[in-house]
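SECTION: protein entry
WANTED: fold as tokens:
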Amino acid sequence: MTTTAANTAPLVVGHALYLELIKGIYTTQIVLTPEGISSSHKKVPMGMYRRRLSTIQPKKQWKFAVAASSSAPVVGVTPPSAHDVAQNYLRYWKTYLDGFAAQEWTLFGKPIIVEVTAEDLEDVRLAKTPYKVLGRVWKVRKALGFPKEFLHTK
């Protein structure tokens, strides 16, 4: 049997959301990764990578946090609807994201959604920065006409 590119492509297991928020000299980048099963067949909870850049500190490490809740149904309970699952996912990050609205941060451009593979989730499981996911975000960011620089000076 011959191996083709079609059957060797990594399996997409979910999608990540990228947000770029600006306020004054600051740019905050956020990547929300989905819950899923990693390449090592372990369950990985939803994760969030974030960093705040400024003209003072134009390069920063990504910080990582993991959701404490899961979409896993409780035994003996009716399975949740897709809406309930989405609400459960976002409930964990809602307070964090609401803080940006309260402090009058502005969403720059459009939210970006990219594919996530089981290998990417393995990085999330190990609390490593998922550079392949970020690479996909940077490609889409460029295609959407975002500026090359992450810092947005007014």
User: Anything to note?
Assistant: The radius of gyration is 17 Å. The chain has a mean pLDDT of 86. The CA atoms of residues 64 and 128 lie 8 Å apart. The chain has one domain: 14-72+79-143.
